[in-house]
Amino acid sequence: MGKFSIVGLKVVLTVILAGTLFVQLIMIPMILIHDSSGNTDDRLIQGSFLSYLFLAGLIIETCVFCVWKLATRVKRGTVFDPASLGYVRPIILAFAVGSIATFALAAIFATTTQIAPGVALLVGGAGLLMVGISIIVLVLRQLLEQATMTEAQAAELRTELGGVI
């Protein structure tokens, strides 16, 4: 990756982080302060949705941090180091937790008559999408692991060749 693509990625990650922090620290408390619903079904749906938003923010923040660290390693040329694998695992786990939370939210939406069945189905589809993303990142982690082993083998061969010459 070039210098401009790394800078562009970090700008996008900064905007994403600012947005999630705004939702978590400003929007969710504002909604809770101005809540006037008295119906228990409304409170269950609203509480579930706000809890989901907060958890989604934590998941996004985790992924932003890990991608930022990986981008920094790419910039330094140290991405094919075994330590890079430690930044991929939290992304996989974050998407797995996010998919479980999304399925739970879809189940809560499905139990009420106030939410259209299509909305519950769409939320469930988003959970399935998150499972797919988690699997894709897992495959990419395995590719990074193979590339790391190949890089280590190449360095070992260069050392041996230097000793022969």
Provide structural commentary:
The chain crosses the membrane at residues 12-32, 52-71, 91-109, 115-140. InterPro entries: DUF2975. It comes from Glutamicibacter ectropisis. Keywords: Membrane, Transmembrane, Transmembrane helix. With 165 residues, the chain is mainly alpha-helical. It has one domain (3-164). Helix content is 87%, strand content 0%. The mean pLDDT is 91.
Short description:
By secondary structure, this protein is mainly alpha-helical.
- Biggest pleated-sheet summary: none
User: How many independent structural domains?
Assistant: 1
Average of the residue pLDDT scores: 91
Q: N- to C-terminal separation?
A: 34 Å
Radius of gyration: 21 Å
Q: Low-confidence spans: pLDDT under 50, at least 5 residues? A: none
How much helical structure, as a percent, in the residues? over 70%
| Estimated share of beta-strand residues | under 5%
Shape: elongated
By secondary-structure content and strand pairing, the structural class works out as: mainly alpha
Number of strands: 0
Please report the number of helical segments: 4
Reading the helices and strands in chain order gives HHHH
